[in-house]
Specification:
With 134 residues, the protein is α+β, with helices and mostly antiparallel strands. Helices cover 19% and strands 33% of the residues.
């Protein structure tokens, strides 16, 4: 089965339009689908049929006769809260959280995880990690 690349949105007056899924995430949901609360989502990209999302009309009529929509960028704090909740859930379950080592700093390494910068102490690294960073 091929994964969809666009979300088809129903607008009033029986008008439909599409928004690329790459532009939407859970932070755009203003009312989740019935029986699918946001707290139960696996990731930020876990949009479900029935979610009500916030979009803006970019072009009312295109040369193709349809409407062009764009995702309304949410406040940074909403996205950060969703991301932090996802990281915290993985950490509490003992699942690994993947990130990128940014640089060496006093006491360990600065690492980037989903837009957050954290400290990876030397005591939590292996010799292989230290060789790749230095």
């Amino acid at each position: 089965m091929v994964a969809p690349v666009a979300a088809t949105l129903w607008l009033c007056l029986d008008v439909t339009a599409e928004v690329p899924l790459s532009e939407l995430d859970v932070s755009h949901v203003i009312r989740p689908a019935v029986g699918a609360p946001l707290a139960d989502r696996d990731s930020l990209a876990d949009l479900r049929k029935g979610d009500v999302v916030r979009v803006r009309i970019k072009e009312l009529f295109t040369p193709y006769g349809d409407m062009q929509l764009e995702a309304v960028h949410q406040e940074l704090s909403i996205t950060q809260n969703c991301t932090w909740a996802e990281i915290s859930a993985k950490a509490s379950e003992g699942r690994p959280v993947f990130g990128r080592v940014l640089n060496q700093c006093p006491g360990g390494y600065a690492v980037g995880v989903a837009g957050f910068v954290g400290l990876l102490p030397y005591s939590r690294t292996t010799a292989a990690t230290a060789q790749r960073v230095v």
